[in-house]
């Protein structure tokens, strides 16, 4: 999935710290950091501490026993026990910050590191209790960036499901007929919506959750995050960008392919060939120690050398105007980035390589693989063929 390259911000990390005593208050269904730390999945926010080298969860009575059985932290404590302690110390109706304060006093720690998305309400209350909270930007857990063999396997398993279902979708297009410029399958016009619903259903049957899958045709595809709508048209490029999450492992995969049903124009064929060569150039350059900014710049320079300029035309961006790639794991977009920021790739990172070119008068093309950074180069975790024309 294409990610806009963030502008450089020299002040971004001025409040970051590498403190070892950590505090998070978040819901693990939506916050990958607290899930990574606890390996406990819950629909409501809970409290995670890392204090003096040990990890703790402070859990409600509803979840405390399940957390003790399923989480990977050292100690699971009862929220209601600490709430009772706060009351015994004179707080009539202790709120969450008061309960957290009770635990913090027990640990005799005054300075804590919190993630950048830490709730302001609790941050203000804890500072009033006299604590120092140091904000640490992502990656909050640096080890999250470097994937273990087990994590790489989980990503690859999700990718296998992606390749299976997109193969089924392409088979429908292959069996389809062209009538009056539209693509018909079993008597019905194929649309972005119908094909997206088919993909999502097949993914769900396999244990994966697909959301916001992009199936965008023609001019719609020139907006990289336009999910697409309406009938799919023959002889025009159709971008498929599919990035589901495994319901079991929680790890994402991400792949983009561009296809045409029928006969693409010569300018569109040349656009595809250029993007394919640009992507192969990027993949060849991925290796430990390589600067992602340099990879991105080389692809951009190659496109411009081929005559594909990037810039605003009549108020709309054209060319290659998003980042080359992003990290992937428990989040669909996570550090590192390959784009307009300096980042020297490290062995063990899993990143996408997904350049694209977008011109409303010609069409749009994006091709995306996931690769594992190695010392010598990279290992491509994506095996689905890059076939442009589906007859």
State the major sheet.
Answer: 4 strands, mixed
In total, the number of strands is 24
Q: What characteristic shape results from the CA principal axes? A: elongated
How many structural units, i.e. domains?
A: 2
Going by CATH, the homologous superfamily of the largest domain would be Creatinase/methionine aminopeptidase superfamily
CATH C-level of the largest domain: Alpha Beta
Rg, Å, rounded: 24 Å
- State which percent range the strand residues make up: 15-25%
What's the CATH topology name of the largest domain?
Creatine Amidinohydrolase
* Count of helical regions: 9
CATH architecture of the largest domain: Alpha-Beta Complex
Q: In terms of structural class, how would the helical and strand content be classed? A: alpha+beta
Q: Strand arrangement, largest sheet?
A: 1-2-3-4
How far the N terminus sits from the C terminus, by CA atoms, comes to: 26 Å
Average pLDDT score: 95
Helicity level = 25-40%
Low-confidence stretches: 5-18
């Amino acid at each position: 999935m294409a990610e806009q390259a963030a502008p450089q911000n020299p002040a971004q990390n001025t409040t970051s710290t590498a403190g070892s005593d950590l505090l998070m208050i978040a819901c693990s269904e939506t916050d990958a950091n607290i899930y990574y730390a606890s390996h406990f999945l819950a629909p409501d926010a809970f409290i995670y501490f890392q204090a003096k080298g040990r990890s703790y969860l402070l859990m409600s009575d509803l979840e405390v026993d399940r957390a003790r059985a399923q989480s990977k932290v050292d100690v699971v404590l009862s929220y209601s026990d600490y709430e009772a302690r706060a009351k015994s110390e004179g707080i009539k109706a202790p709120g969450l910050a008061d309960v957290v304060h009770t635990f913090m006093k027990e640990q005799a720690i005054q300075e804590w590191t919190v993630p950048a998305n830490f709730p302001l309400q609790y941050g203000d209350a804890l500072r009033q209790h006299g604590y120092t909270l140091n904000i640490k930007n992502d990656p909050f857990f640096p080890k999250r960036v470097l994937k273990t063999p087990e994590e790489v396997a989980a990503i690859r398993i999700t990718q296998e499901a992606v390749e299976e279902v997109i193969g089924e979708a392409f088979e429908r297009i292959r069996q389809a007929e062209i009538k009056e410029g539209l693509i018909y399958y079993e008597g019905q016009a194929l649309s972005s919506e119908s094909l997206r619903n088919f993909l999502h259903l097949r993914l769900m049957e396999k244990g994966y959750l697909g959301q916001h899958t992009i199936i965008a045709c023609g001019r719609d595809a020139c907006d990289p995050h336009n999910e697409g709508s309406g009938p799919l048209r023959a002889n025009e490029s159709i971008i498929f960008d599919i990035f589901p999450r495994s319901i079991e492992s929680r790890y994402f995969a991400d792949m983009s392919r561009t296809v045409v049903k029928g006969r693409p124009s010569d300018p569109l064929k040349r656009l595809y060939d250029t993007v394919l060569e640009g992507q192969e150039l990027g993949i060849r350059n991925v290796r430990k120690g390589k600067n992602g900014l340099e990879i991105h710049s080389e692809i951009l320079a190659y496109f411009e050398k081929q005559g594909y300029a990037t810039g605003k035309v009549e108020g709309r961006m054209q060319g290659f105007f998003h980042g080359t790639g992003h990290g992937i794991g428990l989040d669909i977009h996570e550090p590192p980035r390959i784009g307009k920021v300096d980042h020297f790739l490290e062995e063990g990172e899993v990143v996408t390589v997904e350049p694209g070119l977008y011109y409303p008068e010609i069409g749009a093309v994006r091709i995306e693989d996931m690769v594992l950074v190695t010392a010598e180069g990279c290992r491509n975790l994506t095996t689905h063929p890059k076939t442009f024309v589906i007859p």
